[in-house]
Design a protein that fits this description.
This protein is an alpha/beta fold. It has a single domain (15-141, 178-227), classed as 3-Layer(aba) Sandwich (Undecaprenyl pyrophosphate synthetase). The protein is built from 8 helices and 6 strands. Helix 3 (34-54) runs parallel beside helix 4 and helix 4 runs parallel beside helix 5 (113-126). The protein starts with a helix and ends in a 9-residue tail after the last helix. The protein binds 3-methylbut-3-enyl trihydrogen diphosphate (2 copies) and magnesium ion (MG). The site of one 3-methylbut-3-enyl trihydrogen diphosphate has 10 residues, from helix 2.
């Protein structure tokens, strides 16, 4: 049997993006409030980030909160913001030790001010690392990202015609390669406004597992499925 690293030599996977879904249902199935699912989801984030490092994946992006998630009950939003505060602060030293660059994608200005400061500090402290990147998509929406890009092109005074390259340059993280693989947990088969521009040629992997149950083996399975795909990009 060919191992993951053997296969990797053929066509290297650079960026894995994950839609971490199913925290609420995980909690519900245990008779617990939804926030318990989000807490268990944080543990899963830690496990997955560790596994991605062990599997030598240079970019990992995690969809943590969408521009549509503000429609949830206030109590859940407050709980989630509390977790973001706690997680980013608690993990910063570890992330520095592991020499990973931590970045955020989304409408950051729409987040509570103290979280904005934590984000700035984290990005600043880790910007010196170039081996690996952990990207957290927070208050992220693919449509919003494209609208923000168009507005910043207008602000720059760029004249028509606008090209793909110009638009790409104005996305939130224009130097990050497009996701090779997008994983979604919990059995839902949709993008929910994630990486709209960047996912044009991504491969998709869906699992019925809820996010808090996702682990290294699942990541390995997804990677293995990816290496079995034939990416043709429109060619014959
Ligand atoms: C994903 O889990 C986490 C966030 C969207 C913040 P959900 O909270 O969407 O869990 P389900 O889909 O309701 O089970
Ligand atoms: C997508 O999950 C957003 C995140 C994982 C952060 P949702 O649970 O919000 O998506 P829908 O509502 O089922 O499409
Ligand atoms: Mg959901």
């Amino acid at each position: 049997m060919t191992s993951i690293s053997d296969k990797r030599n053929k066509k290297k996977i650079e960026h894995i993006a994950i839609i971490m879904d199913g925290n609420g249902r995980w909690a519900k199935s245990r008779g617990l409030p939804r926030i318990f699912g989000h807490r268990a989801g944080v543990k899963s984030v830690e496990r997955t980030v560790r596994a991605a490092k062990e599997l030598d994946i240079p970019y990992i992006s995690l969809y943590a909160f969408s521009t549509e998630n503000w429609k949830r009950p206030k109590i859940e939003i407050v709980g989630l913001m509390g977790l973001f505060r706690y997680y980013i602060k608690a993990k910063i030293d570890e992330i520095c030790k592991e020499e990973a660059r931590m970045r955020f994608a989304g409408n950051i200005k729409g987040l509570p001010e103290d979280i904005q400061r934590i984000i700035e500090d984290t990005e600043d402290r880790t910007k010196c690392y170039d081996k690996r990147q952990l990207i957290i998509c927070l208050n992220y929406g693919g449509r919003q990202e494209i609208i923000d890009a168009v507005n910043s092109i207008i602000e720059d005074g760029t004249s028509a015609p606008i090209t793909e390259d110009i638009l790409r340059e104005h996305l939130y993280l224009n130097d990050v390669p497009d996701p090779d693989l997008i994983i979604r947990t919990s059995g839902e088969l949709r993008l929910s406004n994630f990486w709209l521009w960047q996912s044009s040629y991504s491969e998709f992997y869906f699992t019925n597992k809820y996010w808090p149950d996702f682990g290294k083996e699942d990541l390995e399975q997804a990677i293995s499925a990816y290496y079995g795909r034939d990416r043709r990009y429109g060619k014959a």
